[in-house]
User: Which sequence fits this backbone?
């Protein structure tokens, strides 16, 4: 009986070819759009994550406990000594291929005419670009990145330079409060101006970079830093590396009171942006499924209205009502399954094509375009097909129930 109903349902679907094709076209287009949209958003997220981890956060960061909670205040009293203890813990993990220390602090930048509060970001040029390899590529033409042979040099953000009228080669004054509360001032030369890639990190447009050694001297903090950035060979294992680092820090260097966190823990605002994009995607997916369901409901209702006498005849020959309902549900399954499989295949083909060619995309919050390559997993294709079939069945419940409740005598007299 199972296969008989399936064959009969297939004949009924193919009987009105034009209407069935129109309905399946809606399912095909909807599923293809869902698959491609998911592949595009996954690739966009990967490009954005690569962008922030390879220019700002690194894969894992180590701070003193409590530093992240007070990060907005840039506290200097929650610093870490950069000595053999920390180095031995980091180098004990073969999954770590590079690390670098940073010192972040609040300061005031002045060029004699204008002054502005800034965020100082002191880096070790000999190691920083191993953990954030894309960072040095954002310096505008005509400038240069920091090097340890120019401890008097700084690199400033382009928006800050534009607002204050600062150019490469200008001498500016940097004033900062030391850990003990004393003010210290140093004259520095602008070596380069960095393009602000995004505002997602919140302070990028007010960043002033200098060498770690120069900042330690300015702040009277020799051999100390506020964070250590770690690069992991396999990015996907960053959370695991952070957990293992924390365990070794607690066991081998508890006096440091250090905390290791992967990039997600230090980029909450960025994660919120990714979550919002996912929310928008799922809203679009729900709308597309709603359109598909509406099309199937209309098709099945029309099929019921056209086949009233046919249904009455079947009932007169003893076909039970539940068989009538099952027949119409099977027809909906046919429409949904064929359309979902074809649409998923079409969407997957589009993902493969653009995955090879790539897409140049300019996010609203980025100052430079991203080059992304869409990709999708087979598990998502299976989910789309299953949801489409379930949606088709649910859409056909009302028309099928209506058909099964027809009165045989009334149905036979229908014209």
Assistant:
């Amino acid at each position: 009986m199972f296969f008989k109903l399936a064959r009969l349902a297939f004949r009924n679907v193919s009987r009105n070819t034009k209407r069935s094709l129109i309905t399946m076209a809606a399912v095909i287009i909807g599923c293809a759009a869902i698959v491609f949209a998911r592949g595009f958003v996954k690739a966009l997220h990967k490009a954005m994550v690569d962008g922030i981890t390879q220019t700002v956060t690194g894969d894992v960061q180590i701070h003193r406990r409590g530093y992240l909670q007070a990060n907005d205040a840039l506290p200097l009293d929650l610093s870490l000594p950069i000595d053999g203890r920390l180095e031995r813990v980091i180098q004990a993990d073969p999954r770590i291929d590079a690390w670098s220390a940073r010192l972040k602090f609040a300061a005031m930048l002045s060029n004699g005419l204008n002054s502005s509060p800034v965020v100082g970001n002191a880096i070790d040029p000999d190691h920083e670009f191993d953990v954030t390899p894309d960072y040095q590529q954002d310096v505008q033409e005509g400038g240069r990145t920091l090097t340890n042979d120019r401890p008097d040099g700084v690199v400033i953000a382009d928006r800050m330079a534009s607002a204050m009228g600062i150019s490469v080669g200008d001498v500016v004054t940097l004033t900062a409060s030391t850990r003990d509360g004393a003010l210290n001032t140093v004259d520095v030369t602008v070596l380069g101006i960095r393009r602000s890639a995004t505002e997602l990190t919140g302070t990028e447009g007010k960043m002033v970079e200098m060498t770690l050694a120069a900042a330690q001297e300015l702040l009277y903090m020799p051999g100390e830093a506020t964070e250590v950035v770690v690069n992991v060979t396999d990015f996907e294992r960053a959370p695991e590396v952070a957990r293992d680092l924390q365990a070794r820090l607690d066991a081998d260097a508890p006096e440091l009171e250090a905390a290791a966190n992967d990039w997600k823990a230090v980029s909450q605002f960025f994660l919120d942006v990714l979550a919002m994009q996912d929310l928008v995607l799922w809203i679009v997916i729900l709308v597309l499924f709603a359109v598909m369901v509406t099309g199937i409901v209309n098709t099945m209702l029309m099929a019921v209205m056209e086949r009233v006498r046919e249904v009455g005849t079947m009932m007169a020959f003893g076909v039970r009502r539940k068989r009538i309902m099952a027949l119409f549900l099977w027809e909906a399954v046919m429409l949904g399954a064929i359309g979902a499989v074809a649409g998923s295949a079409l969407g997957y083909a589009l993902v493969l094509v653009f995955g090879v060619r790539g897409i140049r995309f300019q996010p609203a919050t980025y100052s430079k375009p991203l080059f992304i390559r869409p990709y999708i997993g087979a598990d998502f294709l299976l989910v789309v097909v299953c949801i489409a079939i379930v949606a088709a069945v649910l859409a056909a419940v009302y028309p099928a129930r209506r058909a099964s409740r027809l009165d045989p005598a009334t149905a036979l007299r229908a014209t």
In short: Residues 107 and 176 are 4 Å apart (CA to CA).
